[in-house]
Every structure is written in C-alpha cells, then in structure tokens.
Amino acid sequence: MEQTKIKRMPQRPLTTPRADQPKLSRIHKLRLRLLLGILVVILAFGGWQLHRVQTQIAQSQVQVDHAKSQLKSVEAKKQALKVQVDQLHNDDYLAKLVRQKYLVSKSGEVIFELPGTASKLTGNGN
Fold first, then answer.
1. Mean pLDDT on 38-46
2. In this structure, are residues 121 and 101 in contact, taking their beta carbons and an 8 Å threshold?
C-alpha cells in the first residue's frame, strides 16, 4: 500500500454556540431598544412639529378670514363713497344737500324746522 502524504487532522468536538448566544442576544436586545428609543424620539419630535405647523396654519386662516371680511367692508364703503362723489357732481343733488344740511333757502322760500328733524339732519354726519 502506498502511503499518502495526506494526514488527517484530529477532530475536535463541535461546540454549540449556545454558550455565547445569550450574550449576543443581550447585545441585540440592547441595540433594538436603543433603535426603538431613537425612533420614538424622532416620531415624538415629528408629531410635535406637525401639531405646531397645523396650529400656525389655523391661526393664519383666521387672520385671512378676518382680512377678507375687512376687505369686503372697505370695498362696500368705497363703493358708497364713489356713488356719493358721483352725486356731488350733480348740481341738483348738491343744492338739495346744502339746503338740507345748512338750512339754506331759495329766494322767497320759508324753512320750518319741525321737532325731531333737526337732530336727524345734524346727526347723520353728511
């Protein structure tokens, strides 16, 4: 028989990794808890930011609604003033306004002041 140059290595008994497994498991659990903690912090911060942004949007919407209502009232006042300016260019209206407000009379006309009408004429601000 021929001799071969190949030698067999002595076999060691196989060890089970169960001895090291609890240590690795603890490390994995620690890492998992750390990652979950970081995730919770990130989600809490994101939720807080979302709430803050929604609050700011709601406040801005209230301001926009208020500004729109003011704009409507100003436009209505502008329209009324525009009508009044147009009427002031009319000589008949202007004469009527002066006669009512300042009690100016035409020649030969007598003005009678009735109770309650004087306060209306002076109180309307025109």
1. 98
2. yes
Helix, strand, coil proportions of the chain in percent (round to 5)?
70, 0, 30
The per-residue pLDDT for range 75-119, each reduced to its tens digit, is: 999 999 999 899 888 888 888 888 888 877 777 877 777 787 655
Residue 119 CA to residue 104 CA, distance in Å, equals 17
Inter-axis angle of helices 21-88 and 91-102, to 10 degrees? 90
Q: Which conformational region is residue 11 in: left (phi greater than 0), alpha (psi within -120 to 50 degrees), or beta?
A: beta
pLDDT of 38 = 98
Tokens found for residue 117: 């009408």
CA–CA separation, 20 and 78 (whole Å): 86
98 touches 104 (CB < 8 A) = yes
